[in-house]
Structure formats: structure tokens, C-alpha cells
Amino acid sequence: MKASNFNLKSIKIWKVGSESGEPVYIYKSGASQGGVVLGFQYFEDLIDVGYKATLTINDTGFNLISTLPVQGFEKVTIEVTDYLGKAHEYAFRLWKVGNRIEADRRRIYTLGLVSEAFILNEGSVVNKVLEGTPTKIVEKLLKEYLSVPGSKIKTQPSLNVMKMIPANKKPFGIIRDLQAKAVSESSVEPKVKTSKPSPATAATTSQRSDAPTTASVKSGSAGYFFYETRDGFVFRSIDSVVSPDPKKFNGSEPVAEYVYKPAKIEQTEAEDDRKIKNIAFQSEIDIMKKMRAGAYSSLICFFNINTGKYEEYTYKLSDVWDKMAHLGTQTVLPSGQKSLSQYPTRILSTVVNHENWYNGTGVANPEEGSDNTNAVSDSQKQYLAQSIARGGILSNYQLSIEVTGNLDLRVGEKIIVKMPNQVPNQSKGELGSFDPEHSGVYLIKSINHQFMMQNLECLTVLQLVRDSLGYKESNVS
Asked: Whole-model pTM?
């Protein structure tokens, strides 16, 4: 059996409300029950919450849609085994029947499948005041509103106690708002210092003679990922997800290594489960886009509505680069980006309100000596610019690869990609035949498993991202 082969064990569907009873088999033990399965595709995404799938069926003589009947929200499970015999089960809820074609005595249609929580979120609204750290609020929303068991929730503790009125927002919408506001307990403590922007190149200085010279510099890192795999939900800091070193930011090592070899070599070697079939760079550094988003430097204007105090802070990526987790080996910000971070390219403004949730007679602002540790203060200075920049530089390099089906991979994991070095042999470095810059650790942003029923082979398409270049040899195999 080739590494790309799989076996389809069963496809089951239950009537709504009868999940504890006997299912209807669409497919079982290698024999079609109600129709021929033409195709199955599975999707996960680091940014788009909720795993999804499509199942295309050639319904011959069973008429599943009318016999069951299919009405929506039916539970569907799909069981497969990979070439090693390892079992994998996918559980969904049916949300759509589409692309239906009637021909002769058969009908072809596609079932749209999603995770149960994804559908429940659409019908849930939150109208109670929420209080706690972003992590605690996320756990509360998942458990109480989406009925997610604790064993299916993986979170990382965060700072900044918050209090918010949801105003009938959906749980996922509230969590989206919290992602940028969450600061990990393991992050570097934000510091404030007064300084003048250091001069950049002569050309830059002459063009920006009106640049602010009295703003302050903020340092630190913020921002969380929130995503769902078939193992459950994850709410972790960007630095934790990105870091390939368990000793830094509570990171994790790469889970696999993939090698891309020239076509002539591929044709003569046996297929294995770590082979890259196709590779393509979708994007490599877009400086203009990053500058417009303020990823390198931003000027943030804070107006305290309680005191009338106005403050400006300058955020520079060059000041916090070494305090962030990185996928490449660059220890310092590249000189071009460092130069661009000297002056703000985006201006943000916001209103600060420390007194909103404080009923005492003292001072609520922690920066002015508040002794009330229970006060819910406004922490925008600790996360606003940092979360924008942290997320902004993460996708500096975007790579798409097609690999032999690997059903163990999850979004949010990291893999090592080795690609050919195109320079002559005598000019190659310590990595030999591999590119020392573009080879390295990448973060899995999205996964698409394509199960092809004609030859029972699986192809996995990975969308990968990284923030910096360079690769250091590791022990992952």
C-alpha cells in the first residue's frame, strides 16, 4: 500500500434528535449502502473558526434526501484509516444540500458539513455582562453557550481583567474582539519610556522632517489565535503558537519534515509520506501593505475621557522584534524593515475610560497610583498597537504545498520544509542541496485533505506562513 492510500470504513447519518439510535449508513465496509461516494474534502483554517467538509454522493436507488428525510442539522460521521492502519473519525452536522442534479434514475448532490459548534454559534446570542480575563471569558462562552466539553478546550492564561456588555453578539464574534485584547502571562511586561525617534536614512529624514519627536515608545507583545480542529477549540497567544521552542513562550516543536526534490529524482524514488508534490510561493513580503496597516510603526493617540488627558505613543517593530517568537533564524529585524519602523505610517486614535466599571471614590487609573486591585481598568495601551503589528508580520511569507496525505496534521502546528538550493554545488552552504533562506519552519495556516475515491488516494494541501527567513538544522524527521 502506498503512503497516499486510505480506506473508507463508513459514512453514517442520524436523524435529528435520534443521535443515540441506529444510524443510516451511506457507506459501510467497502460496499455502498445508499449511493456511491464520489468525493470527500476536509478543511481546517487558523483564521476561519470551525472545521468544514464537503461530501459528494451519487445516490442510486436509495433517495436518501427523501427517505431519511434530510432536513438539516443531521449528525454525520466519516471513518477512514490511513496507509498505516490508523483510524481517523470526523464528526459533523449537515448544514447544506447543494449542486443537486437529477439524471435518469439517479441523483448527484453535495452535502455541506461543518462542526456542531459552528452551527450552534449562528443561533446563539449573548446578552449577559461578561467579566474576567479574555481566557476565562472564552472558556465561559464555549461551555455555556456552545455546549463544548472542557476536554475539547485548550487555552492559555491571559492578563487584563475585562468587563463587557456583549449587546447580543454571537459567541464567536465576542471572541474575535477578545483576540486582539489578550496578553499572555508569559509575554514580556510592556514598558514605557520617553525617547526621540532615531534618524533613519538621509532620504527618509528629509521626507519626514515633520515627524513627531516627543512621542513615547511602547514595547511588548499581544494577540491570540482562536481556532477549531477536529480535536477541539484552541485559544492561545500568537507567540505561543509560533514559537518552535518549548522553552520560549510555551511553544512546541515542528511535528514533521517535508522535502521537495526535483522531478527527475521524484520519478526514480519510492513514494513516502513526507514528499512534497508541488510547491508555490503565494506572497513574499508586501512592504506597502504592511506600512499601510502600521505593522512596522504606528502612532497611537489616547484620549482619557475621564480626565481630558491626551497622550501619544509611538510603536516601533524594531524595539520589540527580539521580544517576539519567530519561525526563522533572523535574530534582528532586517535593515530595510528597521529603517521603515523609525517613523509611523499609520495613526490610530482611541478613547480611554478607566472609570467605566469603577464605582469607588478613589483613582481607577492604575498609571496614577490606583490601589484598587479589583478595578477593571482600560488596558488598550498594553495591546492595541502590539496585537496589530504581531499579527501583521506573521504572514510575511506565504507558501502553498501539496503533500502525500497526512491525516495527523492540524492547523496551528509547525512543519519543516526543505526546498532545493538553485545555486551551483560549490556555492552551497551547510545545508547542502537545500535553500538556507526559504527552507525552515513554517506554521500551518490551513489544511485541505482531498480524498479521491476512484483510486482511494489522499492529497493534503497546506497553506503555510512564516514571519522571517532562515533555517537551523533540527532533529525532526
From this structure: 0.87
